[in-house]
Task: structure prediction
Amino acid sequence: MIRQGENVVATRWTVAVTREIPEAGLRPLRESAAVKIWEQELPPSEGELDALLQGCDGAVTLLTDRIDGSVLDRHPQLRVVSNFAVGYDNIDVPAASERGVLVCNTPDVLTNATADHTWALLLAAARRIPESIAYVRDGKWRTWGPMLLLGQEVSGATIGIVGLGRIGKEVAKRARGFNMRVLAFDPFEDAEFAREHDVSYVPLEQLLAEADFVTLHVALTAETQHLIGANQLQRMKATSILVNASRGPVIDTSALVDALRDGSILGAALDVTDPEPLPADHPLVSMPNCIVVPHTASATVQTRNSMAELAARNLLAGLRGERPPAAVNADEVL
Ligand code: DGY
Result:
């Protein structure tokens, strides 16, 4: 039994939450379990994570927590790892499945926020919004100029979407509103969606060669690591802009620095980077043709509430032995 405010509740489980998350997730957890929260701004170190997970039946983890076989071996009582993210490359899923540990994630609830943010980055890079803001703030704005801060036209251009999953599809739908030609690369083709939304599946090489804007939405796997390297950047148009809303290592960072420096591509807008966080003195941070934001694509109040709620529902369902709304290895474990 633990005491929560005035109420004494029967507690069956102890769960860890590896950072402060919205109350929408903490409330249901507290109603059913003793909750240990890592309240610091920075992620727990390996030792701190071990201390936090001590005696826990389940955990809500973040993409900054590495959960591998050795962590799970040190905490054999852990039965459910509920990631507060749709991506789960921070978790060794086969190692979890081998140990009967359920791994959950938060798909769908962040799709619109991430697609919207992809467009915010694309438009900001195309129309040079950060440079324009800096121009005004720096007191350089003296008159209207026919040649001032010219960007790239978005309407009617070609967008190439790499990874036409949930988020890629929402990016594609928004592209129709800009009357764009929409190309996509994805080994798993959804012919019905493509027909309905006028999307053409093409090989990656063709997409890179023809797109004015390339947006990335693939999960990080061994196959997608450095999917965009020097060769791929060379194939892109000199006027093109690359947007990464997936995971940093999908792009070879040093190849991107070279491509932006030598003009192989015009610009980049990155929600995610490798390394992450990117140090403030990294060349990409100060390049005028590169926008870097701190992995905030899903960062709206509404979406983060929904993610918290879903992560909690996943965790509690898993602990009850039920199939969670979003588990990535339910077939292996349940
Ligand atoms: C995810 O969910 O994988 C994002 O990167 C963070 O919302």
